[in-house]
Amino acid sequence: MSFDLNSLLRTYVVGLQPYTSARDEFDTQTESYVYLDANENPYPNGVNRYPDPQQKELKKILAQKLEVGADQLLLGNGSDEVLDLVFRAFCEPNQDEILIMPPTYGMYKVLAEINQITLNKVPLDIDFQIDMKSLFKAINPKTKAIFLCSPNNPSGNSFQPNDIEDLLKAFNGIVVIDEAYIDFSEQNSWATRLDDFPNLIVSRTLSKAYGMAGLRLGICIASREIISALNKIKPPYNINTLTQERALEELAQSDNYMKQVDILLEERSILSKKLQSIGFVEYVYPSDANFLLVRVDNADVRYSQLIQAGVVVRNRSKEYGCVNCLRFTVGTPEENKKLIQSLSNIDL
Ligand SMILES: Cc1ncc(COP(=O)(O)O)c(C=O)c1O
Q1: How far apart (Å, rounded) are the C-alpha atoms in residues 174 and 193?
Q2: How far does the centroid of ligand 1 lie from the alpha carbon of residue 180, in Å?
Q3: C-beta of 79 in contact with ligand 1 (< 6 A)
Q4: Among 18, 88, 188, 242, which one is most buried in terms of CB atoms within 10 A?
Q5: Pocket test for ligand 1, best of 205, 215, 217, 330 (most atoms within 8 A of CB)
Q6: Which of 62, 83, 105 has the most ligand 1 atoms within 8 A of CB, as the residue to mutate?
Q7: Span from the CA of 249 to the centroid of ligand 1 (angstroms)
Q8: What is the pLDDT of residues 44-102, one digit of tens each?
Q9: Residue 251 in 3-state DSSP?
Q10: 79 C-alpha to ligand 1 centroid (Å)
């Protein structure tokens, strides 16, 4: 398959001269210089200087962890910003179209609406796998990008790798694989296949397994060419100083997070079994993520009863294929006990 990135990018991005900040023009930061180039307040308080627009230190550490080049990474204010940048780089408003596969993460639809991009849907099959036949049928000359989420939110399962590979090979547009929950699964990240697929963009986040949802740090992994195009349109200082510093601190102790992931996986399996013994639970879907999708007899009623018991879960009943489904995030062992106790105390 021949691949021409410039023919996929919006014309304005190809020709765009990005804003160059003071720190882009002179990126050495040492005490031997006096910095009078960025109109900052010169009196130090830890945040008086603009942050590194390219987050070099952070990318160095992330590149090692993710086993890709630092120049294959772009960081966003959460992966929601990464996804928005993909829209803004590739999808021409009122002209291009994207494809998603419901039930899936709600932001793809919202971002399509914000960016005025027609959204086409190819529902997942009964096992929440990609309906490949319908997907290929739905692709048309205007389809610029296909968004898939694996492991998928809210279903929790990963898609068949063969299906994803077939799609990457056959589709000439951009394939975005949202791997927000990959650290809870045994699947290989598609980031390991970037050399095989120049049309691939992988989105990761520090919000889930790495416990930094409050910092807002999303990671886009793609070819150097795609990253350099996205860099042209990102806001110059999109990752603030405190986020960069704190993320570096937390990543230095990422062993702790991996231990927490082990506990959460153990808890996921305990929770799944216990949920199956609750009278009004009809089905617990298998999960590769840090949550369980659970079909109950009446989701609205059970949701309110849980709130009364002090447990807040997500009612996903209105999502395609999720009638009467609640989504339970796996909590600490104590929190999960409280969930099971509360469910057990609810009358049938
Ligand atoms: C599939 C998926 N992608 C992305 C996100 C957003 O991640 P972030 O916190 O990095 O914006 C979420 C959050 O729930 C998600 O479920």
Answers
A1: 14
A2: 6
A3: yes
A4: 88
A5: 205
A6: 105
A7: 22
A8: 999 999 999 999 999 999 999 999 999 999 999 999 999 999 999 999 999 999 999 99
A9: helix
A10: 6
DSSP string, 17-48: -----HHHHS----TTS---SS----S-SSSS
- In one-letter notation, the amino acid at residue 342 is S
Task: Please work out whether the CB of residue 180 comes within 6 Å of at least one atom of ligand 1.
Answer: yes
Q: How far is CA 73 from CA 18, 107, 252, in A?
A: 18, 21, 19
For the Cβ of 105 lying below 6 angstroms from any atom of ligand 1, the answer is yes
What gap in Å lies between CA 290 and CA 183, rounded to an integer?
9
What backbone torsions phi and psi does residue 263 show, to the nearest 5 degrees? -65, -45
How far is it, in rounded angstroms, from Cα 274 to Cα 17? Answer: 57
> Exposed, middle or buried, 46 (CB in 10 Å: 0-12/13-18/19+)?
exposed
Among 56, 59, 61, which Cα is nearest to 29's? 56
Q: d(Cα 94, Cα 118) in Å, to the nearest integer?
A: 7
The string of pLDDT tens digits covering residues 88-116 is 999 999 999 999 999 999 999 999 999 99
The whole-angstrom distance between residue 264's C-alpha and the CA centroid of its chain comes to 19
